[in-house]
Amino acid sequence: MKMKFTYKNSLEYIYSTVSLILIFCLLSLIEIFKTFDLQAFTYKVINDFFTGTLIGLLFFPLYLILKYIKKKLGIIVIRILFSIIVIIQLGLIGYSLTTHINLGADLLGYSWSDMYTTVTASLSLSFLLILPFIVVPIIYLGLNWVFHSYGERINPKILLLAILLFGSLHLFINTRNKPALQNKLNFLFSDIIRAKNDNALASQGSLSFKKEYPLEQASKNTKDVLAPFFNIGEEKPNVVFIIVEGLGSDFIDEGEYKGFTPYLDSLTSKSLYWENFVSNAGRTFGALPSLIGSLPFGQNGFMELNPLPKHNSLISILKSNGYATNYFCGDESSFDRKSNFLEYNGIDKIIDINKFGPGYIKTKENSGGFSWGYPDAEIYRKTLSEIKDNKQPRLDIIMTLTNHEPFDFPSKKVYLEKVERIIKTKPYLEKNKIDEYKDIFACLLYTDNSIQNFMKAYAKRPDYANTIFIITGDHRLIPVPQKDNLSRFHVPFYIYSPMLKKTAKFKSISSHSDVTPSLVSFLTNNYKFNKLEKTTWLGQGLDTVRAFRNIHSIPLMRYKGSINDYIYKEYFYSDGIMFKIDENLNISQTDSDQIEVISNSFTDFKRLNAYLTTKNKITSVATSFKKPVYEFTQQQLSTIKKLTKGLDRDQIFLLARDLAFKKDRENSRLLCNYILNDLPNYGDVRTLKGRTLAWDGDYKNAEIELLEVTNRTPFYGDSYLALMDVYWWSGQNKKAVKIGQKALSNKITDAELGYKLAQAYNRMNNAKDSNRIIDSLIKIYPTNTEYSNFKKSLKK
């Protein structure tokens, strides 16, 4: 039976589309309700109509096909799909209200695991949080019902004409360069398309340059600008980086929200301080590669490149000159693949959430059971307990954590009270704005106080006099609204040291990527260092001119997958719009005739970025101490792809475990290696790999893997149990006792560990210690027959 379709028998589809558009408009009104502006709302409605109309046109063929198959099927499926779209739009608005940016191509730059970690850290699950995601789709379906019930009163031709008319206004009124006014769903997909087009543009042609290694230049070309400010001694100085989460210049010195970082404010006159300094990325993923390596971005951030291109860094260069190199943080170092980057560069020690142990208190968990890790004061305390004054120079990199959602920290009530007192004594502060973000300003006070206490404690150390401290923010914190796109990157930068013979404030613009070039130049020119013949830095070095100027071209990656911002001379090019930068790093839109020059320069950088990272052309000679990573044959990659399709890392681990139990240990280990390439600290995975090796009788490699687990995650109990089994099966009872004692010293209180240790003592004919341990277990577990039977066997 053939069916003739007209607008009359497709009114139900038109009603569904109109309902979708109206929901978009309602959500836009809610989004800007607090700061309602008629012009902004008008633009948002125009964009909502365009997006809704576009969605309606895109899905109409599907509706017709389904309706042809079964009359009611078409509209049922469409209403379900549009309800899902409404839920997605609501989620995107929630994201925008929290972060003050639209979600775009950065979605492609994060793994599901990383996204889950970030979202659960920022939100506490509750009925009130979930309620809008139930109510809004119900309102959408309710609008459908209203149109279905009373739609005959509306002329369908006029309705259709109105939709098309309002939907097309978007094409004639230019609102597309203002992301805040765009429909969130439209922005998401258009930004992903834009990012893919950028990548295609950057890689057009042969991706070749006149020089095979375009960044390569003589090391003498990086001028030593720091030496005039320092007293130079014989001993190589220690270098301590403090990379403060979310520390933007808006909260420092004379910033818009000044007054909540008194200690850091006091350092601006005691340091080399750059007022107009920028991070190269708008999120934490870009801090280490830029600051420590002066490296390009790749497509989604340098650390996301796998394998990492050959490169040098401050870590590898200082390590090759006798430095001990350490990294300290309070969260999981594998997040954003930081540990992969650090290990590539031969870092000696990584202290992260896995290595704090007893005596340190984590940030309390949210309602979903998630905690980022240890707060700032605990990170500094752990750092001070780990660094040794053994006359070996050190590079210590500290990344803080607390100044991030959910902005929870010890003694929060005390700091909230301090915020109230500051508001009362500083009339220039807008009380309403501070009250809205009171938790964040209290957090800034805690962050600042934690740095002060660390510096006070460090000042008591004998190596303090020969230490250079570098303090900066990874990016400006996100939840407090920023005045413009450049504000997101504007961070303070201090070089503070007892070695300074004079201090200075600089208005000239520099960035994170200029730090390592200047530090390497300073150290190699003034101390007994192996001379570098060539360097391959992206940055040119710090500018120490006190007056405002910019001699750098600075690309900025706002988020993973988005190189949308560029600083060129005194101009800021953002989302295709030109701005003039003033001496306080404020910007104003301009119609400069430089736009073509700047646009071409920006495009040239994108091509360079693609060439360097896809062709492995950063350097030909690296001083890095790359640890082996797992490399796979084409056949293995095919197996991995087949086995892991649609699975996240945790699900792949469960599959690897099932394969191991089914005695397919080769493929089990293959999947383990695949996971460990991205998550080297995943203790369960490496322990499983070690156990499968032991089950196959390869005790030597089993021991290597399991000891690696105890090194990376010393407070994870299963690895010790697995090691004790390996030593039992291989007849290495002394090692079994030693590793058992180490586990106990790390407060591993698993009863099974004690039982295995008692057995190991017994195998060594040490009845005294065997009895002592089994007696303590029986006291706790008096009904355990296995323990009782073992005790009886000892009596014999």
Rg value: 30 Å
Distance between the termini: 90 Å
Q: Strand order across the biggest sheet?
A: 6-5-7-2-8-9-3-10
**Helix/strand/pairing class, anyone?**
alpha/beta
Q: Could you estimate the helical fraction of the residues in percent?
A: 40-55%
Number of helices: 27
Total E-strand runs: 17
Strand count, sense and barrel status of the largest sheet are: 8 strands, mixed
Would you kindly provide a written description of the structure presented here, covering whatever features stand out?
The chain is an alpha/beta fold and 796 residues long. The strands form 4 sheets. The protein has an 8-stranded mixed beta sheet. The protein has a 5-stranded antiparallel beta sheet with strand order 13-14-15-16-17, covered by helices on one side. A two-stranded antiparallel sheet has the order 1-12. α1 (11-31) runs antiparallel to α2. The chain is globular and about 95 Å long. Mean pLDDT is 89; it is low at 1-5.
Produce a short descriptive summary.
The protein has 796 residues and is α/β, with parallel strands linked by helices.
Describe the structure using short key phrases.
796 residues; alpha/beta; eight-stranded mixed sheet; five-stranded antiparallel sheet; 8% strand
Question: What is the topology?
Answer:
Blueprint: H1 11-31, H2 38-69, H3 73-99, H4 112-122, H5 127-150, H6 156-168, H7 184-202, E1 217-218, E2 238-244, H8 262-267, E3 272-274, E4 277-278, H9 287-293, H10 314-319, E5 324-328, H11 338-344, E6 349-351, H12 376-386, E7 394-399, H13 412-425, H14 431-436, H15 438-458, E8 467-473, E9 493-496, E10 504-506, E11 510-511, H16 515-526, E12 534-535, E13 553-556, E14 565-568, E15 571-574, E16 577-581, E17 587-589, H17 595-614, H18 634-644, H19 649-661, H20 665-678, H21 683-695, H22 699-712, H23 717-729, H24 733-745, H25 751-763, H26 767-780, H27 785-795
Parallel strand pairs: 2-7, 2-8, 3-10, 4-11, 5-6, 5-7
Antiparallel strand pairs: 1-12, 3-9, 8-9, 13-14, 14-15, 15-16, 16-17
Helix pairs in contact: 1-2, 1-3, 1-5, 2-3, 2-6, 3-5, 7-17, 12-15, 13-15, 18-20, 19-20, 19-21, 20-21, 21-22, 21-23, 22-23, 23-24, 23-25, 24-25, 25-26, 26-27
